[in-house]
Design a protein that fits this description.
Length: about 325
């Protein structure tokens, strides 16, 4: 192992209702819709990206909202819980905000940290944790104060069908450091400030099934295109079979499934989401790759209309 990822680049999930998806992640959680595009392999489906003001690596959650999608089952071979970091002292605010929207919340503890756990409208498992590290978000929406806004990912909880092999890949392939174990979980840390803390249950988790309310894959950061090409060789040398390098417009990607069943991606930090539209208006227009532009009218006619809108919870 000669390379080390600095942490999570993005996490991609399945959903059903695109407007409900936007309402939850933009309207309730206050994230910015930084890119509205399509699934390049299935142009009848949106691909929506939510993150901080720039959609920086370590802040991006993306969705394929497919109205006819089956319901998934969270389990082994998936990201089980997506963790978001909020500023120190913000957890009480978020408990009140989520409750005001009728979202059930519970508190959990791991490694002396308190997590506020809840599910999105599709059943995707999420949690918030207070962390000092990482810059505050520069995006403010829906009345969420800047000092309470979600920073980006705190990390993730990986549900593995073979925890020993998954944790071995985290350390010896991706370069994370094992920093703690509490009898139920092992904790790993990368060098980045966001998306840098990964917890893995020590017991194997029975396999889940893909569908709405589950994670499709987790992507790890590569600093640039040159390093990305090196990662392909590293993955292959480790014994996995990476895909070819794929141009995803806003980053280059390669994929492989680790031995615990989780689909891993390695994605480049550049070029970012402002490559095809101004940073000031990110996410406002449906952006298509050049090969789909001749079909824009038909694609737009086939997609359900969506809008970013501020929502009002029922305050006590």
């Amino acid at each position: 192992m000669t390379l080390q990822t600095s942490g999570i680049h993005h996490i991609t999930a399945f959903a059903r209702d695109p407007q409900a998806n936007v309402d939850f992640y933009a309207g309730i959680l206050g994230l910015r819709l930084v890119k509205k595009t399509i699934n390049f392999d299935a142009p009848e489906v949106y691909h929506l990206y939510f993150g901080n003001e720039a959609g920086s690596p370590g802040t991006i959650i993306t969705f394929f909202p497919w109205p006819t999608s089956r319901k998934g089952r969270v389990g082994g071979g998936q990201v089980g819980i997506t963790t978001y970091a909020v500023p120190t002292g913000a957890l009480g605010y978020w408990e009140e905000r989520l409750t005001s929207f009728g979202i059930a919340v519970t508190k959990a503890s791991r490694f002396s940290e308190t997590f506020l756990q809840f599910e999105d409208n599709e059943g995707l498992r999420l949690e918030l944790v207070e962390r000092e590290e990482g810059p505050n978000s520069g995006w403010s929406f829906g009345g969420i104060p800047a000092d309470k806004a979600i920073k980006g990912f705190g990390g993730a909880v990986l549900f593995s069908t073979d925890p020993n092999k998954t944790t071995d890949a985290l350390v010896h392939l991706l370069g994370l450091e094992k920093v703690a174990e509490d009898g139920e979980y092992a904790r790993f840390r990368s060098a980045g400030e966001l998306g840098n803390v990964i917890d893995v249950p020590l017991a194997a988790v029975s396999r889940g099934s893909e569908g709405a309310g589950t994670i499709h894959h987790i992507a790890w950061r590569a600093a640039d295109f040159e390093q990305h090409a090196q990662w392909q060789g590293e993955v292959q040398s480790y014994g996995y079979r990476p895909t070819s390098i794929i141009d995803r417009q806003y980053f280059n990607a390669l994929y492989f499934r680790e031995a615990g069943g989780i689909l891993f991606e390695i994605a480049t930090d550049p070029p970012g989401f402002a490559r095809d539209e101004p940073a000031e208006t990110l996410g406002e227009k449906l952006m298509l790759p050049t090969w789909y532009e001749p079909h824009r009218a038909a694609i737009e006619a086939n997609l359900l209309p969506i809008q970013v809108r501020a929502l009002e919870g029922k305050r006590p």
